[in-house]
Amino acid sequence: MTSLFLILIGIILLMCIWLNNISSRIGIPTLLAFIVLGMFFGTSGMVPLHIEDYAFPKEICTVALIFIMFYGGFGTRWDTARPVVREAALLASLGVVLTAGLTGLFCHFALRWGWMESFLLGAVVSSTDAASVFSILRSKKLGLRNNTAPMLEMESGSNDPFSYMLTVLMLSLLNGNASGPGIFWMLLAQLIFGSACGVGIAKLAIWVMERFSIKGEGYDSLFILSVAVLSYALPDLLGGNGYLSAYIVGIMLGNSEFPGKKALVHFFDGITGLMQVLIFFLLGLLARPALLHKAILPALAIFAFMLLVARPLSVMGILTPFRKYPFRQQALVSFVGLRGASSIVFAIMAMTESPWMENDIFNIVFCLVLISISLQGSLIPRAARKLDMVDADADVMKTFNDYSEGTQMQFGSIDITPETSWNGRKVMDLGLPKNVLLALVLRNGERIVPCGDTILRAGDKVIVVTKTFEDTETYLVERTVRAGEKRDGRTIGETSGEGLVLLVRRNGDEMIPGGDTLLKAGDRLVILKAKSGVPYG
């Protein structure tokens, strides 16, 4: 029996990989394919896997959402998000409340639902889906104007905790477990304990990584994985918002400096993708096709209202007072409000904690997410082009913490001057180490592939190639010189550095600095750093 179960799991995983490949080829959103696969293996599918209640899927989805929330912060590049942090924070908090409230009013007055169930549905679907937004922006390499991409990424990555708070609040009211003072304390505890635990856990983890080397391949990933789990569990035990804590820990760790961070971004990108696949597969597994015909019309009505009224009013009400976001940008931000994994998790939570509702919230959310992913998700690139919000010169990958690309080999250049020891010498006489190759000589506009007899001359630019250096004790970081700070207007030799400045990027140019190089506000410095207690020699 165990072997058959493992074979079934293997087949499902292989089908997920196959669907991922063909969905991008024929233009169908990948997550939609996973929903269909879940329905194929569902209770009413061709290979039925019977799940009698929602309790077990709820626990799985809760764990999966932890990693999605953690990666929402961990993968966000704070330098690019900083200019829009106020707007993103308002969209993630006040925007969620407005969207939930407007959607609840629509359900009550248009669909004739009871007050409590109306606002519960509004709370469940009030947040946008971070993983879907990240996936679309990355896969399409969609560079957007006026800091739109970091705003969308930060909003979608941080609005789930507020949707969760509203869902918990509405479930407490629906079940008659909440009073005025109780509601106030619950909301306060969610924010205070969630934020405090998030900041505390993140600072402790950073302190540990700065002072102790984690030995063994992959154990640094295991350490961050355990931190992500604890970032949810500890505040949740205290009555705090675990998702808020996970996001705070993610963004603090993702924007701190420690060796191997880029590899961890890729690791958690893969984990998040797996968790998202799991949630959407479970959504398909739990769906009841026989009941979907009753849910499709209210789901279509709610989707249309959210797309055309609730989300636009929330976005425009928040962004218009800033007076720097044109209508077309507000329209795109509104359109990218996809519903996804978090709505599914909160719908399952609603079904387990208040199962005797008059309306089939789970299947309605199922249809709504299906429509949002398949329709909105596929139309985002076209909408961005129609609204003239695509910036061909913008690189959306700069908004993620794994932006800098690395390879096993790297090129470097050396300028030959009359004073250089290489001037007038043959390549074979240079005594180059085995892991350094002189690949090209640029001379008076010519490209010369050198051999051992090639003589280097003053004015040549020599291109060398060597292995990329990676080490657990030293690593590269980037710093921007800001106006008024200690580096601004001073030479490198005059500033007590945190490491060796290897490169200065200024106005699109790159220079190898010396001790007398004068730094200016706006300079981007590439610095070689060492962990605490490791000398430079």
Task: Describe the model.
It is a single chain. By secondary structure, this protein is an alpha+beta fold. It folds into three domains: 2-390, Na+/H+ antiporter like fold; 407-467, Regulator of K+ conductance, C-terminal domain (Alpha-Beta Plaits, 2-Layer Sandwich), CATH 3.30.70.1450; 469-537, Regulator of K+ conductance, C-terminal domain (Alpha-Beta Plaits), CATH 3.30.70. 56% of the residues lie in helices and 9% in strands. The protein has helices at residues 2-26, 30-40, 55-74, 78-81, 85-109, 115-124, 130-139, 148-158, 160-174, 180-211, 219-237, 242-254, 261-286, 289-319, 327-335, 341-353, 361-386; strands spanning 409-415, 436-443, 446-448, 461-467, 474-480, 500-506, 509-511, 524-530. A four-stranded antiparallel beta sheet has the order 1-4-2-3, with no helix packed on it. Strands 5-8-6-7 form a four-stranded antiparallel beta sheet, with no helix packed on it. A hairpin with a 2-residue loop joins strand 6 (500-506) and strand 7 (509-511). The radius of gyration is 27 Å and the shape is elongated. It starts with a helix and ends in a 7-residue tail after the last strand. The model is unreliable at 403-407 and 533-537 (pLDDT under 50).
